[in-house]
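Support request, please re-run this one:
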Amino acid sequence: MTLTNRDLVELTAWRRKLHRQPELSNEEAKTAGEVVDFLSGTNPDRVLARLGGHGVAMVYDSEVAGPTVLFRSELDALPIQELTEVAHASLVPGKSHMCGHDGHTAILAALGRQLGRQRPARGRVVLMFQPAEETGNGAAGVVADPRFKEIAPDFAFSLHNLPGVPFGEVRLRAGVVNCASRGIRIMLEGKTAHSSMPETGVSPMPAVSRIMPALPALGRGTFADDAFAMVTVTHAAMGEAVFGIAPGYAEVWATLRTRRDEHMAELCAAVEALAADIGSRHGLSVRHDYHEIFVASVNAPEAVGHLRQALDDEGIAHGEDGLPMRASEDFGIFGHGAPSAMFFLGAGEGHPALHNPDYDFPDDLIPIGSRIFMRTLRNLLG
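Re-run finished. Output below.
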């Protein structure tokens, strides 16, 4: 099964349509509707909408016993003002597809077009258009949805485009490919005072000045070490933006990062203990909460083997350079229920980086990504 020239023209136009109307994590209702409309002509055997939020799962069933194979893409955009000059630039101020999720969605739609013409010989294919990858709650929401049990896969695959890698080449390895990470918000509360009499209050300023350098110092090892841990302070705020009040409240935000999930609990405990100790020494009450929780993405050797076979069958160059990465990716949670693997598809060595305001997904990756997925599917299901 191959894409026609008309398919490629229509898929490219549709990808650019999605690019013009980006929606942020947990807001992807219109994008999800576009997916359902675009693939309605492929006559999926089942459509699960609003899965784990705005997720859409399209099921193509051979009605012959066999494995269920899931392919996943993301729907969400980023809160970044686009600075490209392309004709299909974002029409929504402050929002844009600067990570290529519009392109990943088009690749999955290409797979849907081909499945609409010919079902697999056996088993089922699930095209999972997932919401909220950027905030880390999308995959978790999908897997937690009771309806996910009806389409629970035997294998799960995904891809991400990767600037800096030669165009069309693939990076793939077994084991960890993306770090576990989470954001912590540390809240320090004392008592305000008149700025002429700060001694009558309890300011969080001395505690903040100690906590901010102490957090990164909790990191350990090099990235090549499985015990690697990293803390990055990302934001701090204290008091009101006035001159007459000595502050009584502050927040420090940080991102915690480890190569493996089992080391994240240790890092969290260390950060919590540090904040509590410093806060109590300065007479403050200390609270914390966690946000944007990503588990580590770990590629299963069996799933990697299927992708490598597909790459070799299609004559696509691949290697392990640059893996694993410090960045996080919420696809990892699918690997808790089935052998899963994600590969990284080169967007070009000189292509603008992900999350940069001048990034745009290269449309010529659509047929390459869909070829890899389709070959993987055919090898598994016939």
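The mean pLDDT is 97. The first strand starts at residue 46 and ends at 51.
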